[in-house]
Amino acid sequence: MLGAGAVGGLVGAVLTPRLGRRIGVGPAFFLGCILFPAPIVLVPLAGGPKPLVLAMLFLAEFGSGLGVMVLDISIGSIFAASIPHQLRARVSGAYLVVNYGIRPLGSLFGGALGSTIGVRNTLWIATAGAIAGFLWLLPSPVLGLKELPEPDLTD
Question: What is the pLDDT of residues 57-95, one digit of tens each?
Fold first, then answer.
């Protein structure tokens, strides 16, 4: 399954520049925010014969790998173009603290919830929450960002 995610990531890395040129870098980021978590819906849906379960898990990993590359490459490009180079390390550090800092809390909460209401129900809640993450972008100017701004290279 992890190999399927890696292949999806490679496909996403190849497609993202074209996607950004075609629909714009902001909309590509927005799309990545949906494409990354949306395939995970196949995980709690997985059931039935073993080949079907494996196929659903394979597709979930492949789709998430593709989506995360669209998301990461797009936001990396936006950051590189819009954050002054003097602030880039601080912004990157803050971004990583939030991104990686919340994961242990989510793991603890997910484990507690899974042992309380069951794994499948917890997966449904986690999937819905992950997909709803794009809602933060709706009032954002990122959606209208078609081309990257010219970076400010002055000191």
Answer: 999 999 999 999 999 999 999 988 888 888 989 999 998
Choose among 81, 8, 3, 11: nearest CA to 38: 8
DSSP collapsed to 3 states, 36-61: CCHHHHHHHHCCCCHHHHHHHHHHHH
Decide if 40 is inside a domain.
yes
Q: Give CA–CA dist 90/97, Å, rounded.
A: 11
Considering its fold, how many domains does the chain have in total? 1
Domain that includes residue 103, residue range: 2-144
Least Cα distance to 12 among 87, 83, 68 occurs for 68
pTM surpassing 0.85? yes
Residue positions counted in the chain:
155
C-alpha pair distances (Å), 132 with each of 10, 48, 54, 76: 25, 28, 26, 21
Whether the per-residue pLDDT at 1 is higher than 90: the answer is: no
